[in-house]
């Protein structure tokens, strides 16, 4: 899998912003990506040193469109911890 295909988008929420203060950043990643692939993709894209990667499989919510129930797709979230002194400017509001 190519590095550009692993990371889908950064997740900027209130919780991820507070995690960013401690050097952790949150991304939506490909459902088939492994921890090693995510680590390599973040190091390649942002030129930082990754310490650890935590991965969560998020289940899609059930919604209703009219009277018909529907399900949003499942997706994968990765929380990436960077080395001391490294940061990603995308999350810093630059």
Largest sheet: 4 strands, antiparallel
CATH topology: Alpha-Beta Plaits
Spatial strand order of the main sheet: 1-2-6-3
Shape: globular
Corresponding CATH superfamily: RRM (RNA recognition motif) domain
Give the DSSP E fraction (strand runs of 2 or more residues). Answer: 35-45%
- The domain tally reads 1
Number of strands: 6
The CATH top-level class label: Alpha Beta
Number of helices: 3
Radius of gyration: 15 Å
Distance between the termini: 30 Å
H/E series, N to C?
Answer: HEHEHEEEE
Mean pLDDT: 93
Q: Low-confidence parts lasting 5 or more residues at pLDDT below 50?
A: none
**Helix content class:** 10-25%
Judged by helices, strands and strand pairing, the structural class is: alpha+beta
* CATH architecture identity: 2-Layer Sandwich
Word description of this protein:
There is one protein chain. By secondary structure, the chain is α+β, with helices and mostly antiparallel strands. Helices cover 24% and strands 37% of the residues. Strands 1-2-6-3 form a four-stranded antiparallel β-sheet. β4 and β5 form a beta hairpin. It is globular, with a radius of gyration of 15 Å. The mean pLDDT is 93.
Topology readout:
Blueprint: H1 3-6, E1 7-10, H2 14-20, E2 24-29, H3 35-46, E3 50-58, E4 62-65, E5 68-71, E6 75-82
Antiparallel strand pairs: 1-2, 2-6, 3-6, 4-5
Question: What's this entry about, in short?
Answer:
This protein has 94 residues and is α+β, with helices and mostly antiparallel strands.
């Amino acid at each position: 899998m190519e590095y550009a295909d692993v990371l889908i988008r950064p997740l900027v929420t209130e919780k991820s912003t507070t995690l960013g203060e401690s050097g952790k950043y949150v991304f939506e990643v490909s459902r088939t990506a492994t921890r090693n692939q995510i680590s390599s993709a973040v190091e390649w894209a942002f030129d930082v040193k990754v310490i650890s990667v935590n991965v969560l499989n998020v289940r899609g919510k059930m919604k209703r469109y009219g009277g018909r129930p529907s399900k949003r797709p499942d997706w994968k979230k990765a929380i990436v911890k960077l080395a001391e002194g490294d940061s990603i400017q995308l999350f810093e509001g630059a």
